[in-house]
Hints:
Elements: H1 15-23, H2 30-62, H3 79-99, E1 103-104, H4 107-114, E2 123-125, E3 131-152, E4 155-173, H5 176-181, E5 196-205, E6 217-219, H6 222-243, H7 247-258, H8 261-264, H9 271-319, E7 321-324, H10 326-353, E8 357-358, H11 359-374, H12 382-391, E9 393-396, E10 401-404, E11 406-408, E12 413-416, H13 419-431
Antiparallel strand pairs: 1-3, 2-6, 3-4, 4-5, 5-7, 8-12, 9-10, 11-12
Amino acid sequence: MASYQDRQSFIPFRRQDIIEICLREGKLTPPEAEQFRSFAEIFTAYVHFDYQKTLENLKNNFAPIDPDADTRHFEPPSALVAGQMETSLIQDFTKTLKNANYKPLSEEDLKAAFQQDSLIPLKTDVDFNDFEDGRMLFYHRGLTRDTVVLRKFLKKKEFSFDVFERVVLLIKFKGTDHFKQKKKKQESQNFTPGKLYVYLYKKIPKYDLDILFPNVNISMTWKDLLRFGIPAISAIVPIILKALPNLILITGVILYFAIGPGAAEKWGATDETMKNLLPIITAILSLGFVVGSYAVKQYLNYKNKRLKFLKNVTDTLFFKNIDCNGGVLHRLVDEAEEEECKEVLLVYYFLLTRGEFTREKLDDEIEKWFEEKFQTSIDFNIDRVVERLQNIRGKVNGGREEASLLTIQSNGICRVLPLVVSKELIDYVWDNLFNYNKT
């Protein structure tokens, strides 16, 4: 059983498609195929009910810090209870992400991704100190490679970059005191201090991860600073060098034009002086104008790049945003439920139709099946599935025996119950989810 760092555990097919793919292999007789369909139906219902409890816990714990809440709290929780609810939310949310086959990206990996060149070269900065400790989660699922053609220096050049198919971001900002210390005005922020935000995006380039953060700051790159600063300095320095030796004379020139020759004469600005000085001043001003114009042009280029960047941010947040806040909780629970059903049905089907395997061999067989049948490489999570099937226990054979859906023999061989018995076991578990009638 190999572990792959460059593979995703996500199964890129719908649960219903997995069922159809398995059945079309023809390894089950028509009666067995119908039994498998009905087993998949009742097992899916059971998993759905199980995840419904997870969703309710997430919703209840998210309610006090939901920035989009349109309901009032009948009895707001105390600070201590609210902190405990928030901790439980983070734990359940993280577990749900992993069950949905998302992978974490650490703060260090995020910062490294920020260093990658963007299509619009601007300096961006995200202050991670704005977030509460332990209240920043970044998960992704699905990594592809994309290529665009850009024109650089009159030549077309291909630009390749990594793209995350799905990105989940959870952040909680520190309170208002933190941002007051930073002298940040509330009206300049597109977030509320002290609130927790959850976002779900699709198809986000790895170099664009920074624009997903509401507190991203945009500024010039060092190239922009050089292009803007050097011409500006070039324009100012000659003027200063010319003016320093003749500071008094320059004052006289100003008075000459502002008041008249009489007032400027004692400062050395006579008619004869002005005849010799005017060409110098004209040349200096002309040089300053030309170089200053170039600096202004470079600054306008930067402003245009900034506008393009902001448009890119707007397009990303608008067109690539799948859901936010409470809606993300619903969607991720549904995705986790879907992934678990696909994984369990595959393991059950393989053990039912291909004989006995150790968990390591079974993991390899399923990964090989995806590669040969769909040219798709995945890192199947066999341990989680085996543990799940082992923990589903119930009465079978008319209630005379208790069994697990999957058992592991002393030699490591995994076995599942026959279809009819498996359905009976799930039916028993389903009937006993609630046991209020004790009479």
